[in-house]
């Protein structure tokens, strides 16, 4: 029987952060379950051409694991090297169970533990369960008539097939979000023709990237210098919340900057009109790229807007809404993830057989985006309303660890077996989140985005400053919890 004190599901930055924090707190009886055949999460999985982070690398890193980055916005290969360094430095590789895809989990009230059933590795048991599968782990591929008839190659950016040579081919990219904005400039010079199918345009701001010289990289190896740079970047980015929530004049200024950037990079008025959003900047994820617009200007790139979108697919290509047939060799789905309603993809059964999918039937919610009534000793890393649109997600993950470790330590120190958030505490917290959300651009900016669940509630984002969230998670509030 595989029994542990703590089980962590997922081996990306969330799982790694949970594991290292457990080790630092003196808890070494844990196991990481990873569904794939490799350790590492997002930056080992997403290997599409052009993949890179859109938050400055010194901030998009774990506070306890500084790194000598080669550039301000690291590419996928360097992020993978960083991930592997964290894994090796803290000895996490021997603590992972690979190809352990979770099928279902259930709380055993008599034993006060979680039973985690996997597809290929049997069952695991633990007093505490940390879900760190991440919000961007379930790719979404839309359905079109005739899709299965297509005789060419297809894949999602999340599963890029490097055995397929796209050079000199006719390629369609479906989607125009963050991953598409990275793929398009990377492959456009190498393909015969690239067709980009855009449902709605995104706001784009320039990417202030730079390569670090030898001396600067040496400085990044000094913890005081690294910490200072992190905080300088952090506070610069934190001011963006003022525009997203508190100041309409501020957001108008940012939008004017984006419009000037669009006009400067896209001289063709027809193409520029197709690329001009009709919603307030920030309502959808803002793209950060200095190469996306120039790629769309190329003679071998055609942008199709909603009116010219996909009507159906046949054996040789795409039939558009304006009655054209476009022959393509490859269709790349750059269509994102189920980041709201699909936060946890496997069935979860809590106390008295309460089902998480039923609790979340209206919309996903959780106390501090982390714990739920009727689900003792269960913690969700990057759960509902913990996303952050202006700074590093890793800052939020590390803040969650304050609360999670506090919960585990409190149960352990007092000879208890479980901790569970009270219903009224969760309701009060959720009401506050959605009350504050009304003031944000994500709710009132005039768009429908992946930040929203099917219910229309904004589920992906935290409606305020990241330091406000950090303050909420800094210390456990015993009165908000039930202990047993």
Automatic annotation (TrEMBL):
InterPro entries, A to Z: FAD-bind_Monooxygenase_sf (IPR051209), FAD/NAD-bd_sf (IPR036188)
Record-linked Gene3D superfamilies: FAD/NAD(P)-binding domain
Protein's UniProt name: NAD(P)/FAD-dependent oxidoreductase
């Amino acid at each position: 029987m595989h029994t542990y004190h703590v089980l962590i599901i997922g081996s990306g930055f969330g799982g790694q952060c949970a594991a290292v924090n457990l080790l630092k707190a003196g808890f070494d009886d844990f196991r990481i379950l990873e569904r794939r055949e490799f350790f590492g999460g997002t930056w080992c999985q997403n290997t599409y051409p052009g993949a890179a982070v859109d938050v400055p690398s010194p901030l998009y890193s774990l506070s306890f694991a500084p790194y000598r980055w080669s550039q301000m916005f690291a590419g996928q290969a360097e992020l993978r090297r960083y991930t592997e360094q964290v894994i090796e430095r803290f000895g996490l590789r021997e603590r992972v169970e690979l190809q352990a895809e979770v099928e279902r989990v259930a709380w055993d009230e008599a034993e006060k533990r979680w039973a985690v059933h996997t597809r290929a590795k049997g069952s695991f048991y633990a007093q505490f369960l940390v879900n760190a599968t991440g919000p961007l782990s379930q790719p979404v591929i839309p359905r079109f008539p005739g899709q299965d008839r297509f005789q060419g190659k297809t894949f999602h950016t999340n599963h890029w097939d490097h055995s397929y040579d796209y050079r000199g081919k006719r390629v369609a990219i479906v989607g125009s979000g963050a991953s598409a904005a990275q793929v398009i400039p990377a492959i456009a010079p190498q393909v015969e023709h690239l067709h980009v199918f855009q449902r709605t345009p995104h706001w784009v701001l320039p990417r202030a990237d730079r390569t670090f010289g030898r001396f600067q990289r040496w400085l990044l190896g000094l913890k005081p210098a690294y910490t200072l740079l992190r905080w300088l970047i952090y506070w610069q980015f934190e001011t963006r919340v003022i525009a997203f929530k508190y100041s309409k004049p501020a957001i108008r200024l940012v939008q004017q900057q984006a419009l000037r950037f669009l006009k400067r990079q896209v001289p063709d008025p027809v193409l520029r009109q197709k690329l001009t959003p009709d919603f307030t900047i920030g309502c959808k994820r803002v793209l950060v790229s200095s190469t996306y617009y120039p790629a769309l200007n190329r003679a071998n790139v055609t942008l199709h807007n909603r009116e010219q979108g996909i009507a159906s697919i046949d054996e040789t290509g795409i039939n558009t809404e304006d009655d054209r047939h476009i022959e393509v060799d490859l269709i790349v789905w750059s269509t994102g993830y189920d980041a709201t309603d699909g936060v946890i993809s496997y069935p979860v059964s809590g106390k008295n057989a309460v089902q998480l999918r039923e609790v979340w039937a209206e919309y996903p919610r959780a106390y501090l985006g982390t714990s739920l009534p009727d689900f003792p000793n269960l913690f969700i890393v990057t759960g509902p309303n913990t996303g952050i649109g202006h700074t590093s997600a890793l800052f939020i993950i590390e803040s969650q660890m304050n609360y999670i470790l506090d919960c585990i330590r409190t149960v352990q120190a007092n000879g208890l077996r479980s901790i569970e958030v009270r219903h009224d505490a969760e309701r009060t917290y959720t009401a506050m989140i959605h009350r504050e959300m009304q003031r944000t651009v994500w709710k009132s900016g005039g768009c429908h985005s992946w930040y929203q669940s099917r219910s229309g509630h904004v589920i992906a984002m935290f409606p305020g400053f990241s330091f406000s969230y950090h303050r909420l998670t800094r210390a456990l509030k015993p009165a908000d919890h039930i202990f047993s």
